[in-house]
Amino acid sequence: MWEKSVERRRHCWVLSLSILAGAVLFGPCWGTAAETSVERTKVLELLNPDVPAEFQPVLRARTVQEQDFLTAEEFFISGRAKEHAQNFPEALRAYERAWRYSESQNILRCIVPLAGEQNRWAEAARYFEKMEHPDILDVFTLRSIAVYYVETGQFSNAVSAYQAALRALPQDAYPALRVLLRFELGRWQYVTEDLKGARTSFEIVRRALERPSRFGLEENALNALKEQELFDLYLLADTYVMLGECDLAQSALEKAVALEKSQLEAPRNKDGSEKDVPKKVDLDKKLQELETKYAFIAAKIENKRKNLPQARQLVEKALELPMEDALVEHCSFYRELLEALNVENVSETMIPCLEGLFQKFPKNRDLRILLAQEYLMEDSSASREKSRELLDGLLQEEPTPEVCAVALQYAHLMQDGDYFVQALRTFVEKGAAEESFFMAFALWCAEYNKSEKDDQGNTSEDAQEPATLASDDSKDNADEEKVKKALVSILRPIFDRMQEKYPVNDPKTSWQHLWLAGYFARVLEIEDVAQRYYEAARVAIDKSSNRAQKDARSQFCLDAGNWHLEEEQYDKAFEFFQLGLKQKPKKEISGLFHLLASMAAIGAERHAAALEQLKQARACVPDNPALDYYEMTALVLDKKVDEARKFGETVIEKYDTDFSNPLRREILRQIRSSLSSLVLLSGEREGAEELLERNLDEFPDDYRSKNDIAYFWTNAGKNLERALRYAQDAIEAEPDNHAYIDTLAWAHYRLGNFDKAKELLEPIVAEMDDPVGYSHLADIYFALGEREKAVEHFKLALDKFDESAKSSLLVDPKEREHVETQLQSLNSSQGV
Prior knowledge:
The protein has 42 helices and no strands.
């Protein structure tokens, strides 16, 4: 008893010193009292308000919550010490671990700026998104996070960060900085369609430009705003239009036009001095373009005012003036206006207009597509012939999906199956076959062929289905099942004719037609037929001595190989990727083929071949980070454990402090996960856990690492409540992952929740077909007193362990030892 009393006193002293250190170190960070005499209660409430102030850990057993608090405190104090020692990477790591044990907003306030100071903005952003009140951060950190979001295309998040930066500014202080933030924010509010917010931001910038002294704008800031003033005025005008504030839009537009005219007539250098006066011819042309732009935006304003005749006049005026860049937008808007005005035959008005523009801009591809479409809508053979002529030229020049879609419209309207195939063949020869292209065609059929007859002359249910699509979904995301149904009804008869015309076993059938037929079969989900056509196309290419159209051949091999890879037909995929390499594509494409071939070889358990392909890929694209992950995977599956571990450790050591490449960071995360399992096999549990902890430092929502570390903890019988939470987080992210469910069940078992563990694991263990899963369920049965089931599943586990020894699956030998021991124990007790 005496020894325990002394130990308690010693523990009290250590705890008191720890809390005192926390009071000293938390104060400067969180802006609380700086004195070292901060009360213990204050520190507790500051770190985690949920912990009761009266908690006395030395007088009773600690709760999980209390232990988490003490762990968080320890990590936080360590972080502060390392930050004072200017060891910033380690300080950041300590703070991030403190946050995992006590999700305090105050800890996030330390993490985000420190990550930013090390240019780890992706990491800073991940923790920023967890802040309830991000405006407690400093303005410059928030602005930098906003810039990171803009650079990575996360515009909604950028808006949130800019808004937090504005809130972080003291009211009525730093007006110039507020204007500059509004200047940047307004554009991304416009992009994200926060129109009211954009209007407010643009208006603040406008007021600042009109009265710069009131907003404290110095010369540099003022010049920066003026450089973008014209662009912002046009954005403001468009914002007003979309909000229906037409008078304000008109005013903003007039200011923009006046400003642009003055800039055209008297251009100035950045220092304010005048540039050379432009030649009269150039000036007149630019002023004409300005008049066109003005007329078109003015037309949008009149359209919003419901003054449709005036809007039509303005658009027609814009179309008369030479401004090629916005032709398609102008013409599309013109058609909308004509339809809104209930013009009896829109095409009769559109065609002369488009023909006039075509004479001015005969090379404009988009204009030719529009004209071909309008010709198609005219129910006359002459117009259809003109459409065909335009389409033939477009298909030969650049058979984009848009061009082919119009060509297919023509083929469908004319019931010309041969032209349909010709359009698609041209597309696959010069472009790339994509499922989205066929989906686009199905949508077109939904819009333009509401009452087409089927081959028997009757209107089928399938043919009627697209009418619903056209009315409900043509402007939004179409329902995928309806699109697929429409697609099948349209393509099936064409495919049947193709099979008759291009039989798979006819040596005269070209590889292009074989590919096309195979792709049709894939879309129609006739997989056995698709397989035969693709294989015939592969043989035809392999036997051919003509190496023309190598890009199209490469595209075919890529398409076919990827499809077989998705279908887990790894040997076939490997063959197609090898055939693609025979076409001698460019270096970057060769690297892709080698990488894909390595993935196929890994799936086929041809690990030596996989490693050779990765070696070849590295010669083509040495800087591709994905190669490191697949090389390590191939080594692991080849059971070269020591070599795989050494390789993984080398990659981590080389790139651990390189945060310049986001893909590299993602690959390092995956390599750490794989490496942790190898380290655990060597019995180094702490090292394995540390690798996963480092993943969670950088990626706090990495549910795979959460699952793995939860499993490690559960096996070790520690942190069981936290392991349970981590496993639940993993399942929330991926509900159907059987491995994650197994981890959760195992955690419940360790906590004594045997019925819950059985409820989770019993329904999925057969689908898992994994030795460890059977072993876990056997342990659960044993705990519940169901001895026969326990013996049965331990035997199943042992059989699966024997099978895994012959495969590439790596299993911890301790797992097998456990099964053998349990079976021996059960058999012995049964004998007794």
